[in-house]
Write a structure and sequence with these properties.
- The protein is α/β, with parallel strands linked by helices.
- Helices cover 29% and strands 15% of the residues.
- It folds into two domains: 332 residues, 3-Layer(aba) Sandwich (Alkaline Phosphatase, subunit A), CATH 3.40.720.10; 117 residues, 2-Layer Sandwich (Arylsulfatase, C-terminal domain), CATH 3.30.1120.
- It contains 14 helices and 13 strands.
- The strands form two sheets. Strands 1, 2, 3, 4, 5, 6, 7, 8 and 9 form a nine-stranded mixed sheet that branches. The protein has a four-stranded antiparallel sheet with strand order 10-11-12-13, with helices on one face.
- A hairpin with a 3-residue loop joins strand 11 and strand 12.
- Helix 8 runs antiparallel to helix 12.
- The protein is globular, with a radius of gyration of 22 Å.
């Protein structure tokens, strides 16, 4: 019996056609849609192997494109990470070492390139975080006097209304203002699952007893409760994600749009956000581009947040400036290559706008650098004397209960050392044998060659980025 195509969608049909045929049908440059979740580690997404979290829309989206397992942001906090997403360079190279700093006017950003090439550009929902903190009584007049906030002038459309119910109307507004026939770039920033977590974010909520506790956290009631609220916000974001895709489909733009969904940094728990461990840097990254990306692919290639802008520029058939340290992963999208880089780098910088005081902990201030290859990671801590406390969640039940377990000597030894022990200057981890990053190999003779190779790679990165920290090698 002949197969019926009466209910086959355009996307399903296009996925069966040769990419070259599809490209020949339209010489139009693709639209680009970047969907960014906030504080989202990759393992808290269904398509990344977590069967206890509900993300059906993201999971279905992954089946329509390519899932990247090894996307690492350039920093474990939102502002410096987003700097790299929009500039193709590290936050250090962009002179964004202070969390509340604005992106310098002299540093070109993705919307600058795309606008010049004829794209209609927009950013919406949660703030882009790249105009600094211009509202203070002292800082505000300084920002205005010197014209330091420039990001709002780099976009054609900007609406940073943070109310979730406004996502649909704002995206509709963007399309209504877009000039007919112009390709577009839209950056949608979701609020979830950023701390603080709402109660009742998802109905029904995730079962706290069924969810998966990461092996680097103790299985305590407070940990499960906080993780449950975090899971619920991820689930709520999944619905908001689909709402945007539905609008794209209704506008008839889905077939000519490169859509990338990713997180800005890892989840705000111990060993996550604010740290250079994988849970702080490894974010979900899924891309769909009908006719270019073969559906259902999975890639283990190393990717950096610095690579996003070069990739979007190449997708738009624009040159990638030599000044960018990021590497386009467009060849990974179309399948022409399987890897594009050997190392990824990350920097821990200041967090928030609080002044440094006695008693300040790593929640607010820490300075460190990291380099990772396929198997090993080296972390260089330049302020190891700072007492550790997790970014954001230091006020939550999970951290409070962990402190009680530490006090009574009931915390597992590896966790006790990691969260309450002295912090070393150098940390070296074999990620294949020790994915939790608890066994520090730095200084061991059997990995001396590995440590040397990673240290040299870090030294080169720091020199090329004009890093302000002391170099790890005095040679």
């Amino acid at each position: 019996m002949p197969q019926s195509f009466g209910k086959v969608t355009r996307r399903q049909l296009s996925a069966t056609l040769a990419p070259a045929v599809l490209r020949s049908q339209s010489a139009r440059r693709p639209n680009i849609l970047l969907l960014l979740s906030d504080d989202h580690t990759a393992e808290f997404t269904g398509c990344y192997g977590n069967n206890t979290i509900r993300t059906p829309n993201i999971d279905r989206f992954a089946s329509e494109g390519v899932r990247f397992n090894r996307m690492f942001t350039s920093a474990p906090q939102c502002v410096p990470s987003r700097v790299s997403l929009m500039t193709g360079i590290s936050p250090v190279a962009a002179r964004m070492g202070r969390f509340s700093a604005p992106l310098p006017a002299s540093v070109p950003a993705l919307p600058d390139f795309l606008r010049k090439a004829g794209y209609y550009t927009g950013v919406c929902r949660r703030n882009h975080h790249l105009d600094g903190s211009p509202g203070g009584a002292v800082s505000g007049p300084i920002y205005r006097k010197h014209g330091l906030s420039t990001m709002r002038n780099r976009f054609d459309f900007l609406n940073v209304d943070r109310r979730r119910e406004m996502t649909g109307p704002i995206v509709e507004e963007f399309f209504s203002k877009r000039p007919p026939g112009k390709p577009f770039f839209l950056w949608v920033n979701f609020e979830d699952p950023h701390h603080p977590w709402d109660s009742g974010a998802l109905t029904p909520p995730h079962d706290r007893e069924a969810l998966r506790v990461p092996k680097f956290l103790p299985d305590l009631p407070g940990v499960r409760e906080d993780l449950g609220r975090y899971y619920d916000e991820v689930g709520r974001m999944d619905s908001e994600f689909q709402l945007v895709l539905d609008i794209l489909e209704r506008k008839g733009e889905a077939e000519n749009t490169l859509v990338v969904f990713m997180g800005d940094n890892g989840f705000p728990f111990p060993h996550g956000k604010g740290t250079l461990y994988d849970a702080g840097l490894n974010v979900p990254c899924v891309a769909r581009w009908p006719g270019v990306i073969r559906p259902g692919r999975v890639s283990d290639a190393l990717l950096s947040g610095e690579d996003v802008t070069p990739t979007f520029l190449e997708a738009a058939e624009l040159p990638v400036p030599e000044s960018m340290s990021g590497v386009s992963f467009k060849p990974l999208l179309d399948g022409s290559r399987t890897r594009t880089r050997d190392h990824v780098f990350a920097a821990r910088l200041t967090h928030g706008g609080r002044p440094f005081k006695e008693g300040t902990t790593t929640h607010t201030f820490d300075l460190a650098r990291a380099v990772r290859n396929e198997r090993y990671k080296l972390i260089y801590n330049c302020t190891p004397q700072m007492k550790y406390s997790p970014v954001d969640s230091y006020v939550e039940k999970s951290w409070i209960e962990m402190g009680e377990e530490h006090y009574w000597g009931r915390l597992p030894a590896a966790m006790d050392r990691a969260y309450y022990g002295p912090r070393p200057v150098l940390e070296l981890y074999d990620l294949a044998a020790d994915p939790e990053e608890f066994v520090n190999l730095a200084g061991r003779p059997e990995v001396a060659a590995v440590q040397r190779e990673l240290t040299v790679a870090m030294q080169e990165k720091m020199i090329l980025d004009w890093d302000f920290l002391p170099l790890p090698l005095n040679e």
